[in-house]
């Protein structure tokens, strides 16, 4: 097959401020919701004094002080784009201040300047699971409409500040995850078992209005900005050909499509209106909300892809999956990673085609990768490295499916692998679940030098980018049997 990746394809990597920056209390930064989840986003919330104890995310991998070293490594791999996030609580430490924190703004100036020094385009997530903790404690997060105004002030501040340094923006990371992780994703302090569907979907509405408002503000400040939504993608297969299972899979997928449907089409779809009616949910619209959503749709759709799921009308008959936020039933035809995330390269091909068939809009894969336990070894030249052939096989096989989708005519803007440098896991707050091309010497007990080492995959990805994907092979060495390591 001839190489079909477009010449302007944006190859790169992705990280999040709360998982790698560290310096959680330096230069005026406030606490975020991440600082009180020392066991990860699905673990217990500990708001009391001292609750930040033993949280690896507080130090992360010290990007705050080592950003020049890390960006130089990204440049060596040939990155065209680098996805990162701005820590909202670096700019507004509590989230509701009248004036921003200049030291926080200056830090991102330095980061963006360093990226441009190497010709790397920043792709910036405005809110990546790191709402200021004060907004959770005082307002109950996105359950409160007041957060829209605080978010608008924050995004206007950073749009104005970086209007000549950043072109690509994402409003909320994996916005659909609020249905499954309301504190991590939506800063909602109400315990999940006590959170009513009414209050949860009202919070969803507040985020969607805020996202549309951010898009509107962006276009007022710089007409060249490109603003995208960001959702978890998780293609769902019926467990059997039973029509009831097919409908169960459709219903599960609609939980995700709801968010992209509104971002792209600017209105609530009929299926969610029926759901609201059947569950006695009545979303309160303020005057102007409907027009704001309709008139400020996104320029592109970005998404994470790690796994697919299966669904049944009778899920109690099957073992529950151990995978991503959205769960699902394990697929007997797939292998799994060490964390139970099922490995399905063709699922990425499916989701690319389904998104494009549905929306005919540019797509951007902004998270994909394999979390695994890596072993640092010494090679024949005396250099420390990781022989992560399992990661190379995983990524090769997924990128081959991206190529297949492009061959079908799907418009794919780029690909940023998740955790291009090892960082702290969002879901479990551990270091041993590594995704990177670059090994960071830090461990679950907090020990380590924080030194950086290039893995075997570092050189592989460098060659992929240099060849614009031409070196990808139909089946990677080792194949999917070994991808789970």
UniProtKB/TrEMBL annotation:
Similarity annotation: Belongs to the glycosyl hydrolase 1 family.
Protein name, UniProt field:
6-phospho-beta-glucosidase
Record: active site: 367 (nucleophile)
Matching entries from PROSITE patterns are given as:
GLYCOSYL_HYDROL_F1_1 (PS00572), GLYCOSYL_HYDROL_F1_2 (PS00653)
GO terms classed as biological process: carbohydrate catabolic process
Molecular-function annotations in GO: beta-glucosidase activity
Could you confirm whether the keyword Transcription appears in this record? no
Q: Name one GO cellular component term.
A: cytosol
Hydrolase in keyword set: yes
Record keywords, A-Z: Glycosidase, Hydrolase
Under the heading InterPro entries, the entry gives: GH, GH_1_N_CS, Glyco_hydro_1, Glyco_hydro_1_AS
Q: Which superkingdom is the protein from?
A: Bacteria
